[in-house]
Amino acid sequence: MREARVSIVNTAKVALREDRDTLLARARERIDLVSRDRPDVILLTEQFANCPTDNNECGTQKTAEDFKGPITEELSALARKHGCYIAYGLLRKDGDKAHNSMALLDRGGKPVWIYDKFTPVPYEMEQCGVIPGGEPMAFDADFGRLGAAICFDINFNELAEMWFKQDIELLLFPSAFPAGRLLDSWVVRYGFALAASTWYDHNRILDCTGAVLARTSDYCPYTTGVLNLNRRVVHMDGNMGALDRMRTKYAGDVIVEDMRDEAVVVITSLKKGLEVKDLIREFGVETLYDYFKRSRRVRKEHGGV
């Protein structure tokens, strides 16, 4: 068992452009409210406080903030106050460049990670001068291994494959649009949990099976989901014998959940300190990533694409 309490907070109102101070005040109020759940991480939306009103390069340069600007200063104080990580969308100034970013502050309010939007919408790049991010690297927080995607990124499975290869446990998704079933498809295919915070009322936290653990609504724009991140999805093929031996040796500490429709199973450790990744090595279980990689290799060897 490795529990992570994940909170999502919506501050934006669709089609309504509000000033930074108004949005920061709303974020502060809702972060204070959701902090009663003692979250490990709180996620805000894409560009939650500095979305430009003019969709051009001038508007971008006028609105973009340095990673150490007023927005970060405000949230750093809240991270320290509540002792949690805070992840938030930021139109980020980087010298004479601008990125659509997700920034992460640690429990002491220190900036520790930046994820830059992998594929901005074409108008962001062509009209607004937003620079796409390079190949991303996962971040190891004290509660789990994190990846991110921002809004339009969810349409590009090559990004999901990068996170899949890096064995992330939780994907943070700050966005303008809700993304709907696209979120479910990433979770079900790649086996990581996902937390989404968007400009819309209805946002969800999904575990690695695709189950909804928590959701926001027009009634309550913030919520918390409790995840066990010490879980892994593996394919049934070739693994069932090893999993049976695992369950015998660690009876009561390990649960194997059958998801027959997708031909996968979920290994869950209920014991603190007993890591599923170590169990996979101990029993020679083939990971889902390695199984797909081997399948591609064998396909090629037999004349496939």
Strand content: 25-35%
Structural shape: globular
Q: How many helical stretches? A: 9
Distance between the termini: 41 Å
Task: Specify the biggest β-sheet.
Answer: 6 strands, mixed
Provide the succession of SSEs: EHEHHEEEHEEHEHEEEEEHEEHH
Using the 3D structure, state the CATH architecture of the largest domain: 4-Layer Sandwich
Report helical residue fraction: 25-40%
Classified by CATH, the class of the largest domain is Alpha Beta
Give average pLDDT, whole number.
96
CA-based gyration radius: 20 Å
Whole-number count of domains: 2
| Widest β-sheet, arrangement of strands | 5-4-3-2-1-12
For CATH, the homologous superfamily of the largest domain is named as Carbon-nitrogen hydrolase
Low-confidence stretches: none
CATH third-tier fold name of the largest domain: Nitrilase/N-carbamoyl-D-aminoacid amidohydrolase
Classify the secondary structure makeup into a structural class: alpha/beta
Number of strands: 15
